[in-house]
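Reader question, answered in our methods column.
A reader sent in the components of a multi-part assembly and asked whether the whole thing could be modeled at once rather than chain by chain. We filled in our standard form and ran it. Here is what they sent:
COMPLEX SIZE: two components
ENTRIES:
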Amino acid sequence: MLVFAISDKGGTGRSVTSSNIVYRRALQGSDVCYLDFDFGSPTAGAIFSVSSAARGTIQGGMHGYFEGRIADPHRIDIWAETDREGLRAKPPGAGQMVLFPGDEGGGEFSTVSEEMLRRCVRLFTRLEEEFDLCLVDLSAGRSFAAQMALAATARLPGVPFRWLVFHRWTRQHIIAAHGLVRGRQGLLAAGVEHGHDEETLADHIRFVRTAVLEPDAAELEGLRETQKAWLNECDRELRELARRYGVGRTSMLGKIPLDPVLQWREQLISDEDVLSSQIANAETVAAFDDLAKKIVDDSAWEAL
Amino acid sequence: MLVMGEVRTGLLQNSGEIPESLCQGVLGLLSGERVRISRRPIVYAVSPDQLTGVDCRLASAARARVRGVGTVLSRASVTGGRVLQGSSHIQVARAEADHRLSWSHYLARPGVVEVFGKMRVPDLADGFADSGAWNDCLDLGSVSERFMDAVQASPLLDRKAPFRSARTRLRWVAVAEEPGREGPGIRFTLGRDRVRTLRLVLPDGFTPDVVDFCEDLALHDWLLTTLLVIVERARVGTATRAEVTAKLAPAVDHLLHLWMPAARLDDGFAPLWEALERRPGFSRQWQSLVARVRDQIAINTLALLREAGGW
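And here is the structure of the entire assembly that came back:
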């Protein structure tokens, strides 16, 4: 299955959340891979703590593959090549976890040629043979990479795909997420141009809220009653706004709580971070785990 | 004499094995010619030979610039309606002219690549065996995969494979036996990223049977590799019996009956297979895995019977 991760704005935690989903899915026993399609700033290597590819690889990554310079993009076995001690031993029963990094100094594409599209279709077909889940991390906003993903999936009727739209739980982000999907030149409009059926495509898109502060969260214990009331009111307004913009509960796949570790360390959160060093919250890991299950759970993706 | 090739092996992307009647359609995509099918002891279908013209560098262990021009001979095959292989090889020969000739010259020598200048067999053999996927030299594996991709994209396949599996790569090099320099007849090495290398020393020179042998070895290496992964993932002893059985079931449904080493090979290759059976011991490892799979399923059946009170 192909899963495309996209966000309208930067700083939503799209990459760090998708990386953690991939990691959780691997722990749950699936073979997973992560494709860095953020050609302008390939940083997935840093999230997985693979220092040789922290800013993209020099050994022929995604960019070089699409340009036709190499036949197979460079692949990194994360279990074997990560610098983080705690991740290096693949737990029994866990699946493959492979990173396809971008190229160092690659740059965004300015067009999608027929040849690039053919290469994209071939890559997706081959990876589908080998991996249960291929997560494609697209850059923020409308990009040629997103166009290419829409065009390629339109040509692969037998390959299941899903889209995750990441947004923060704020007024601006909710409106932006709506625009990215339903606005002019949004995903749906562009998808129809490439031959997708609008309704079917819409059924394959779900939203993920990031950095969510729940009004009843333990962190808010010390607040004054007036502050709590105000926060509750804000949250209610946001829920109403989200519902009006089609970004509400029914189209949401999951939400990730605000966790300082994610903001400052943009890395995989291991169980060790929760249990022994206790720098991360158990709720955060539970949210990743839940998302990793829902991504492949058909009942979470029934038509709205 | 220097012959080198690469075989890539993977699971045909279909929910079940495809019947013989579909093989023609699936493999016939590649050309108008007929697909050859043999039925005993296992259904084996092979596409007509395909030629790819090349004019490029050949990998050299000494990093010399060696230019080769000619054609690569490739074919795709399906064994047991289940396992797909793409196989390409070239015979390397020294060019008589010092410049590129018209393509008719090369087309008249299918599967021969001519190199300009001096030809050092060990240098080219080592260079090819060690070449990575991302240099700018002739990449026979990519040629093989292109034909596999064409087969996998066939509309006759439903693309609902019963399990995920990675393609394996077997890179092989065959050289003639040299008087006074006795090397091993066969050397098989497991490398990183599912790359295997096979070095052959052939006393009787090259025949197309050598390609059959390499493909047969690649097929069985893929079966063993794939079954090992399935058994490892089943977490025998840790997961519940029902989970273990569910994970092992695809192996029973789709893989166990395909093991038939050297079934279609010329008798002359029996000693080579025997050498591989001694070390690394392909069939020994396979049999032990198969026994383990069957025992696990038997134990689960007994447990279920006991639960149902019928035993």
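What stands out: Residues 56 and 104 of chain A are 4 Å apart (CA to CA). The first helix of chain A runs from residue 14 to 27.
Send us your own complexes using the same form.
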